[in-house]
Every structure is written in structure tokens, then in C-alpha cells.
Amino acid sequence: RDLVRSRGLGDVYKEGPITVKKALENVDGVKLANVSYDTKLALVTFDDEKASVKALTDATTNAGYPSKKVK
């Protein structure tokens, strides 16, 4: 599991978390993506042989919500 923080999740009338969740779920190898509006965090469970943190952050960035891995 990795935590990914996304900036701007509160923008666009709370639609951000839904958009980020869908973007993450569309990455091959993602098994589960939980996105929190309150904390601006996504907890992602993925197969690291198919996906990477870079693929996850690229997916959210391409959806309009740049993100980075947090510890």
C-alpha cells in the first residue's frame, strides 16, 4: 500500500476524489483505491509487478490532480 497525496482535491465541487479514484482504478495492477476528500490522501493497493507509484501519480496528474507519494 502506498499513500498518494493529491493537491486540489477540493476543487470542482467535491468531484475531485471521484475523478482521482477512477484514474487510479484505471491503472493496470491497481487492486483497491480509497480516496479521502478530508485528508486529500489516496490509499492504493496495487501489484508492483504491474503498476508503480509513478504510474499512479501520472494517472492522477493526467486527470487534472497532480499528486506525489507520501510516507
In short:
The chain has 71 residues and is of the alpha+beta class. The protein has 2 helices and 4 strands; from the N terminus they run E-H-E-E-H-E. The chain is globular and about 30 Å long.
Structural summary, described in words:
The chain has 71 residues and is an alpha+beta fold. The chain has two helices and four strands; from the N terminus they run E-H-E-E-H-E. The chain has helices at 16-25, 53-62, and strands at residues 2-6, 30-36, 41-46, 67-70. It has a four-stranded antiparallel sheet with strand order 2-3-1-4, covered by helices on one side. Strand 2 (30-36) and strand 3 form a beta hairpin. Helix 1 (16-25) packs across helix 2 (53-62).
- Read across the widest sheet, the strand sequence of neighbours is 2-3-1-4
- Indicate the structural class: alpha+beta
Overall strand count: 4
Order of helices and strands: EHEEHE
Give the overall average pLDDT. Answer: 81
Helical amount among residues, as a percent range?
25-40%
What value does the Rg take, in angstroms? 11 Å
Counted by DSSP, the helix tally is 2
- From the spread of the alpha carbons, the general shape counts as globular
- Unreliable parts: 8-13
User: Biggest β-sheet: count, sense, barrel?
Assistant: 4 strands, antiparallel
Distance between the first and last residues' Cα: 11 Å
Strand percent estimate = 25-35%
Task: Note the main attributes of this structure.
2 helices; 71 residues; 4 strands; globular; alpha+beta; 4-stranded antiparallel beta sheet; single chain; 31% strand
